[in-house]
């Protein structure tokens, strides 16, 4: 994990500096002169040789200091912490929605393979996976928030908004993300279950007179579990690393919105910090996914 | 039945409680404003960005400001200054009893320290620093600014909210200021970056007594709180407005006009005219240092087609040559025959005169402002038809902001500006600007213009400057464009303005 983080640190550092753009010129606005932009660059330490900037960045990062945001004038760790809540809860809610929708339907579609239900589910899943999430978001926002007023159209509350009320702001974006991600999980669940349901041991279980739900859930789902857990893990990692488009459409101040704004503002320390958090999140979620394999399949050993 | 009634009551109570969090109606005393993003800084001295002006004008103030007709009017000053010594000495009396947000009283020491900082760190202040001989406290509530020579745009500069000469308490003055303390009608309550900025009424604020008039006059502090929400996505601003979440939304896309107009909750506000798209020309290096090539460029541009492609409807643009719109004191028609020529033959003759060898004309533009890109696309076709080779450098705005500072990298970059109250506030006239337009006749006329105090003479001199701009192609005004904003029906006290303010706002 240490090596992964070091590699990510290095790539993050250099990749953001390879992109053209000057945070100082952006901050000063259109009527500042090049000399004034150069002075600000100097004050921000951006005029130092790149290798010195890199060394300073790595030494600080090892100490847990990801630097100071150029735009927010706050430590990057503090900026990232403030974005964790909406992103984590948005990811959790949308994953729960996706699981509740996708797994049972995927199992049942596989069980009723070739039926009208199965064909309909495949078509709908295909449609949900093909429609861009920004369009789904815009439609949901327009109809469910603006026209019917069932949800807030955007944002994450104000100064007087308590935790539980803030969660209300996440319901609509979570629905959108949940629907989009359920399509993928549904297709994986169905495909995986189809493989397993044609195995000999399923036939054996049925021939022993076992009831169908027990055959499907105990013998089928358990053996189909590994690919399903893998795709769930990957989906969750993707969500936690920032549902960029959905956060943008619903103006949720999460990691996705943060990283887009940081790129537009050329806030190098924030871009680097976000990439590190994303890398570490992926590593941890992959680790947890691997550990879950042990629970669902006794044959797996590390 | 009784049981059912109780159940119904409970269900209604739950429904009401659940509805509260997403109810669009905040307390009436809060005005919720959706702006295009976060202010880069709360110190308006150091930035020339409009978003910084829009936000900070609520908590910091200048000595002067502008009324609704863009005349300079006093704000922290008692009145307009006494100008003496041939227009070089400005004696400014400061209002008594003004309190900063930290409880200290405003005096001449604060004004001198703030103006000196403005000359050191503000892009606009630094631009005139060498013209200022001294800034001195000549009394506890009196300051005298002495110029080396008469400089008529000084008051406009002191009044402008962009790179603003705001007044801070002397004790916080330093090169960079983290905790901004001003005298404005609102103070910063809570700020959660990218989520909201809460501005709360400053109870010790002393408003001017004159009737409200643009930024001038009484600042009535009607809302208890102004809540500024940064909303980067334009469609999200529209939906938030028509769902009733926002009381005011800035910079809406032109295509949302009908949707906002059809809303039961909101109404469109068309700021007409808002500003002008500009083709800034590189006079320091590259192709367009050759006047014939600049004339060819000017002759080739199909202005009306460019504006149509960029803005879509005549409701949003005006094909207008004058550098200031109709009704402004600076409006005139000098040199307008050079505008919107769309004449490939003339362009080709200028190219021939220049001995043009097909070196690409580099147009630096960004899709972050889609209308910039669209007008460049149309212009490219016309320029190529006239004989130019065109290279479109389409980059994001951050990259454009960096590249335009290096004259080796571009020939034209596209930008835009609101119409500013005083021509000298536009940096494009200055030879020291990044565009570097130098012309002996223009410099002489500009020097006269900035030292002349008589309005009629200044108008005449500005006509001359406009003519010179067309003849020498200093920069190209593409036309006028309007800005679409939206507000809750019944919102009052927010005049249409490039830098809208909310201290007089109320919802009926």
Descriptive account of the structure:
The complex is a heterodimer of chains A (302) and B (508). Chain A is mainly alpha-helical and 302 residues long. Chain A folds into 2 domains: 2-62, no CATH class; 83-296, MetI-like fold. Chain A has 13 helices and no strands. The longest helix of chain A has 36 residues, at 76-111. The model of chain A has no long low-confidence stretch (mean pLDDT 89). In chain B, helix 8 (291-300) packs antiparallel against helix 10 (344-354), helix 9 (303-311) packs antiparallel against helix 11 and helix 13 (440-451) runs antiparallel to helix 14 (455-472). With 508 residues, chain B is α+β, with helices and mostly antiparallel strands. In chain B, the strands form 4 sheets. In chain B, strands 1, 8, 9, 10, 11, 12, 13, 14, 15, 16, 17 and 18 form a 12-stranded mixed beta sheet that branches. In chain B, strands 4-5-7-6 form a 4-stranded antiparallel beta sheet, with helices on one face. The interface between A and B is large, with 57 and 60 residues.
Summarize the SSE layout with pairings.
The complex is a heterodimer of chains A (302) and B (508).
Chain A: H1 2-18, H2 23-28, H3 34-43, H4 50-62, H5 76-111, H6 116-130, H7 133-147, H8 163-197, H9 200-207, H10 212-240, H11 244-249, H12 255-265, H13 268-296
Chain B: H1 2-19, E1 30-35, H2 50-56, E2 64-66, E3 72-74, E4 82-84, E5 89-93, H3 108-121, H4 123-128, E6 132-139, E7 142-147, H5 154-159, E8 186-192, E9 196-201, E10 225-230, H6 234-242, E11 248-249, H7 257-261, E12 266-281, H8 291-300, H9 303-311, E13 317-318, H10 344-354, E14 361-366, H11 370-385, E15 390-395, H12 397-403, E16 412-418, H13 440-451, H14 455-472, E17 475-477, E18 480-488, E19 491-492, E20 506-507
Parallel strand pairs in B: 1-10, 1-11, 14-15, 14-16
Antiparallel strand pairs in B: 2-3, 4-5, 5-7, 6-7, 8-9, 9-10, 11-18, 12-16, 12-17, 12-18, 13-18, 19-20
């Amino acid at each position: 994990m240490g090596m992964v983080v070091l590699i990510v640190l290095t790539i993050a550092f250099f990749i953001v500096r390879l992109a053209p753009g000057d945070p100082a010129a952006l901050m000063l606005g259109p009527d500042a002169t090049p000399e004034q932009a150069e002075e600000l660059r100097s004050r921000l330490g951006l005029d130092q040789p790149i290798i010195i900037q890199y060394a300073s960045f790595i030494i600080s990062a090892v100490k847990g200091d990801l630097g100071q945001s150029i735009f927010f004038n706050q430590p990057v760790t503090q900026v990232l912490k403030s974005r964790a809540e909406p992103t984590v809860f948005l990811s959790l809610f949308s994953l729960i929605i996706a699981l509740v929708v996708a797994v049972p339907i995927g199992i049942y579609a596989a069980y009723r393979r070739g039926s009208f239900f199965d064909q309909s589910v495949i078509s709908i899943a295909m449609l949900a996976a093909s429609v861009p999430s920004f369009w789904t978001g815009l439609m949901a926002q327009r109809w469910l928030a603006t026209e019917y007023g069932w949800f807030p159209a955007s944002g994450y509350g104000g100064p007087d908004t308590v935790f539980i009320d803030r969660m209300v702001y996440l319901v609509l974006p979570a629905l959108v993300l949940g629907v989009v991600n359920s399509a993928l999980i549904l297709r994986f669940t169905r495909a995986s279950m189809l493989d397993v349901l044609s195995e000999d041991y399923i036939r054996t279980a049925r021939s022993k007179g076992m009831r169908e739900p027990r055959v499907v859930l105990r013998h089928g789902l358990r053996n189909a579990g590994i690919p399903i857990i893998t795709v769930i893990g990957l989906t969750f990692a993707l969500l936690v690393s920032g549902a960029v488009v959905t956060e943008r459409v619903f103006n949720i101040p999460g990691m996705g919105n943060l990283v887009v704004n940081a790129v537009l503002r050329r806030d190098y320390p924030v871009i680097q910090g976000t990439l590190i958090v994303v890398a570490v999140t992926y590593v941890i979620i992959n680790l947890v996914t691997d550990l879950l394999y042990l629970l669902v399949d006794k044959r797996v050993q590390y | 039945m009784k049981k059912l009634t109780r159940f119904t009551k409970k269900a209604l109570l739950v429904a009401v409680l659940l509805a509260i969090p997403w109810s669009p109606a905040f307390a009436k005393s809060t005005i919720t404003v959706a702006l295009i993003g976060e202010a880069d800084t709360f110190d308006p001295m150091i930035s020339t960005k409009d978003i910084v002006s829009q936000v900070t004008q609520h908590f910091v103030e200048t000595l002067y400001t502008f009324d609704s007709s863009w005349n300079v009017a006093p704000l922290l000053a008692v009145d307009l200054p006494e100008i003496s010594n041939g227009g070089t000495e400005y004696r400014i009396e400061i209002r008594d009893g003004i309190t900063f947000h930290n409880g200290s009283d405003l005096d001449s020491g604060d004004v001198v320290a703030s103006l000196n900082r403005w000359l050191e760190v503000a892009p606009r202040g630094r631009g005139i620093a060498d013209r200022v001989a001294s800034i001195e406290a000549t009394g506890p509530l009196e300051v005298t600014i002495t110029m080396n020579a008469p400089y008529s745009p000084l008051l406009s500069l002191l009044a402008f909210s962009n790179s603003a000469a705001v007044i801070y308490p002397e004790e916080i003055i330093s090169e960079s200021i983290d905790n901004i303390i001003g005298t404005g009608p609102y103070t910063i309550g809570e700020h959660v970056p990218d989520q909201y900025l809460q501005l709360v009424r400053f109870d010790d604020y002393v408003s001017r007594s004159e009737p409200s008039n643009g930024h001038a006059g009484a600042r009535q502090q009607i809302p208890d709180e102004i809540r500024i929400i940064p909303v980067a996505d334009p469609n999200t601003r529209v939906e938030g407005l028509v769902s009733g979440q926002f009381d005011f939304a800035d910079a809406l896309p032109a295509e949302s006009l009908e949707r906002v107009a059809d809303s039961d909750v909101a109404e469109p506000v068309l700021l007409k005219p808002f500003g002008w798209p500009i083709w800034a020309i590189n006079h320091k290096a590259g192709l367009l240092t050759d006047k014939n090539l600049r004339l060819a460029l000017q002759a080739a541009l199909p202005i009306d087609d460019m504006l149509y492609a960029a803005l879509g409807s005549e409701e949003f643009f005006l094909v207008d040559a004058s550098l200031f719109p109709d009704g402004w004191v600076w409006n005139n028609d000098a040199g307008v025959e050079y505008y919107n020529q769309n004449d490939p033959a003339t362009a080709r003759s200028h190219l021939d005169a220049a001995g043009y060898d097909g070196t690409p004309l580099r147009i630096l533009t960004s899709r972050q402002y889609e209308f910039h890109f669209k007008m460049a696309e149309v212009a490219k076709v016309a320029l190529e038809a006239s004989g130019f080779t065109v290279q479109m450098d389409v980059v994001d705005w951050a990259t454009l902001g960096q590249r335009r500072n290096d004259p080796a990298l571009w020939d034209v970059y596209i930008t835009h500006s609101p119409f500013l109250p005083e021509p000298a506030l536009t940096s494009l006239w200055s030879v020291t600007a990044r565009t570097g337009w130098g012309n002996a006749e223009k410099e002489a006329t500009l020097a006269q213009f900035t030292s002349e105090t008589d309005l009629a003479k200044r108008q005449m001199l500005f006509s001359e400057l406009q003519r010179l701009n067309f003849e020498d192609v200093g920069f190209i005004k593409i036309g006028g464009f309007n800005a679409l904003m939206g507000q809750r029906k019944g919102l009052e006290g927010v005049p249409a303005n490039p830098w809208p303010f909310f201290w007089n706002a109320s919802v009926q």
